[in-house]
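user: Kindly work through both lines:
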Amino acid sequence: MKAKLNIIKKDLYNVFVMGNADERQLARIYFLLAIPFFTLLFTFGHFPTYK
């Protein structure tokens, strides 16, 4: 568990601070951020209604 947290922390650092992340790191961070965002969007957001 601690190793996985270190990997995520290293990926966040490479993506946002250093800017030299590879495709796998970008994908991990994308899913790490996208899944909670879409969960909140679908929970509290609303779809437009057409009249």
About this structure: The longest helix spans residues 23-44. Helices lie at 2-18, 23-44.
